[in-house]
Design goal:
Shape of chain B: elongated
Distance between the termini of chain A: 58 Å
Strand content of chain A: under 5%
Largest sheet of chain A: none
Low-confidence stretches of chain B: none
Radius of gyration of chain A: 25 Å
Order of helices and strands of chain B: HEHEEEH
Oligomer: heterodimer
Number of domains of chain B: 1
Low-confidence stretches of chain A: 17-23
Number of helices of chain B: 3
Number of strands of chain A: 0
Structural class of chain B: alpha+beta
Structural class of chain A: mainly alpha
Number of helices of chain A: 4
Mean pLDDT of chain A: 77
Helix content of chain B: 40-55%
Helix content of chain A: over 70%
Number of strands of chain B: 4
Mean pLDDT of chain B: 88
Strand order of the largest sheet of chain B: 1-2
Chain lengths: ~100, ~140
Amino acid sequence: MIMSQVGTIDSLKQINWGTASEAGNPTSPFKDILQNAIDSVNETDAKVKADELAVATGRSDDLHTLMIDAAKANLALETLVQIRNKALDAYNEIMRITL
Amino acid sequence: MPFLSSLNISGSGLTAQKLRMDVIAQNIANAETTRTEAGGPYLKKSVIFTEQTASFNSALRSAQAGGVAVTGIVENRDAVARVYDPGHPDADELGYVSMPQINTTEEMVDMISASRSYQANITAFNAAKYMAGKALEIGK
């Protein structure tokens, strides 16, 4: 019974841990994340602009949709600002290394 | 973003309750209407809501995660009262007029319910937005 338990540890060898060269990715994931966040902010902002125009010109009286889209744009911008703050903090930390 | 799509659930509730409010206002406004385009008196209308589930298709398009949808507005065919009023232009040969059977008190109660549901959806929306705002404060 004990021997069979020892035997199961060998199965770990079957896991492909990958090598350093495989893990190397040519694209930079952080840039993609930031770009996605900026795109998301732009998208929500454009939506708010369209809603505001529709309400202001009387084409729509859908006030809550305008407020919801404004809240979404606010949240998306806040998320982008927080991501930027985190990135700048990390950058400053690296620049503070004394050589 | 999942937080933004969860705000849409409350948004759909707001849209639905606003439509319900419009229909109730229509019922109250037409409580004494004897002529309609379809002929006959105005018939009491009510809104039918359906739950919107997160379907496979909407999950693929990362669209709305749920909420409520309006299936349709139905008329109550039996909500007609026969009122004796021989002087009325729409009275039949016996002197009876077909009037809409709309209980204004009932409509007012429904209106309070719609108004409160609207407020509840706004509260849920604000709570979700507050949560998202708090999530951004993690690690500050």
